Amino acid sequence: MKKLRVLLIGAAFSADLHSDAYARLRDKVDIVGICDKRLDQVEALANRYGFTGYTAYDNYDDAIAQCDCDLVDICMPNFLHHDVAIKAMNAGHDIICEKPLATTVEDAQDMVDTADKLGKHIYYAEDWLFAPAFRKALEIINSGKVGKPLYIRARESHCGSHSPFAQSIKYCGGGCMVHLGVQPVSFMLAMKDNKWSELTAMTSGGGENNMVHQQMEGEDWAGAFMRFADGTYATLEANYVTIGGMPEVVNTYIKNKNFSGTFAIQQQLLKDYEEDITKYVEGLDKAKVKAVYNHISTFLAKENKRFQITKIGKNARNRDYIGCVEWLADAGVVNICYCMNQPELPLKGNYDPKLYKIYFKDTGLLIASLDEEAQEDLRANKNLGTYKGAIYENIVGDMMVKQGYNLYYYSSDKPSLEMDFFVRDADSLIPVEVKSNDNATVSLNNLLKEDKYPDVKYGIKLGYKNIGFNGKFYTFPYFLTFLLKRFVAERNIFKS
């Protein structure tokens, strides 16, 4: 069978997601061209996924005109989708385009009309419809085994858009609805053959009217009420969430049905913890305990996330802070993750007590602890990537602790090798990698293929993935971390 020749335009966030799929379809797809204004990003993307034999372009006009391809995959900022798609179709190519299709209804319609006129295919890259779990759910529903659905409720949320241009309507086209709500909408429409009859919707409005992300021109909350042709009703919510799991914060969110008041509660909780340090610390320098507490988010924002006492104050030395970190852990404020000496069994005793990461017990408090500038970066999504890894590691680490695990990681420059967490079963050391994006799992693969790590027999990857096993490591979505201990204990059941 002739391979599909693909020109990939864009080499940033969404291109990673698409490239992961192409890398798993090497027998059917050839990446013949990659285009991005930054050629270093083109090279990095190709190296991550093992693409070879491609031509690199630094502008899409040249790429579209020169590349001998069957399909153009558009992974560019929203405001460029329309122009690139029109040029590519006029050049004779079929199209895959990231969501949203365009920044205006008019531009989206023009793309569809052009495809019809030229006899070209245009595919809107909405992946929910093809996720195995959703396909199975749709199959069960359509079979009638669960009866006739009378009411559908859907919600998707996270802390902010992936798009650095999301604060601008001109460049983004909207807020949480076009980035998040579109996914459950597509599934609901698939359930009902696109036959809807009524729609009522409202949003936070954008800008100063937003609940949290007031620097963003697009909405940070949106809701809709739908009625389908067969009489089925549905409600939909999309929002950018940063509330964490503290009971008072969650209860306030549930009560108000929005973020009003949640951030203020989180900040007050942080202050309360600091006051408790002043009240209850005995036998230690209270100022030093508070200094550790106030620097947690600073180090989590670093690439390696390791907490360094020597950098929290002038002439700060480890020996002067003995017991400070442990006090915060004993008080239930933080979780400590120690660096292993070597990736080998046993876990206990095989670590350096001077090398560690510190995570908050509650991820909402991590977000609330960021300074004003960082808050603006995160909440307005100007620099979400700086904190994204820390947020997901913080969530996973706390879920592991709640299952009774102690936290261990590994980091080494010689050879270059990093792993977020380790757990164990009866005879195996199990690396657990937390991916905030869909980049290649280099360290995990190295641990599994190197003979010098005989205790490592399989691994676990947590990320934006469905449940799976590739012969070397298992993949699970983040939210299933709470079942990690059960899975490890019962893994033989899953062996095939």
Structural class: alpha/beta
- Uncertain runs with pLDDT below 50, 5 residues or more? 380-384
Enumerate the strands of the largest sheet in spatial order, edge to edge or round the barrel.
3-2-1-4-5-6
Number of separate domains: 3
Mean pLDDT across all residues, rounded? Answer: 82
Q: Determine Rg (CA atoms, Å).
A: 25 Å
In short:
The protein is of the alpha/beta class.
Describe the protein's architecture and organization.
- With 496 residues, the chain is α/β, with parallel strands linked by helices.
- It folds into three domains: 4-125, NAD(P)-binding Rossmann-like Domain (Rossmann fold, 3-Layer(aba) Sandwich), CATH 3.40.50.720; 130-240, Dihydrodipicolinate Reductase, domain 2 (2-Layer Sandwich); 264-494, no CATH class.
- Helices cover 37% and strands 22% of the residues.
- The chain is built from 19 helices and 19 strands.
- The protein has helices spanning 13-23, 39-49, 60-66, 81-90, 105-118, 132-143, 169-172, 176-191, 247-256, 262-280, 286-294, 296-300, 324-330, 363-368, 372-379, 385-402, 442-449, 484-489, 491-494, and strands at residues 4-9, 29-35, 55-57, 71-74, 94-98, 122-125, 151-158, 196-203, 221-228, 233-240, 334-340, 351-360, 407-413, 416-419, 421-424, 429-434, 459-463, 468-469, 473-477.
- A six-stranded parallel β-sheet has the order 3-2-1-4-5-6, with helices on both faces. A five-stranded mixed β-sheet has the order 15-16-17-19-18.
- Helix 11 (286-294) packs across helix 13 (324-330).
- It is globular.
- 36% of the residues are buried.
- Mean pLDDT is 82; it is low at 380-384.
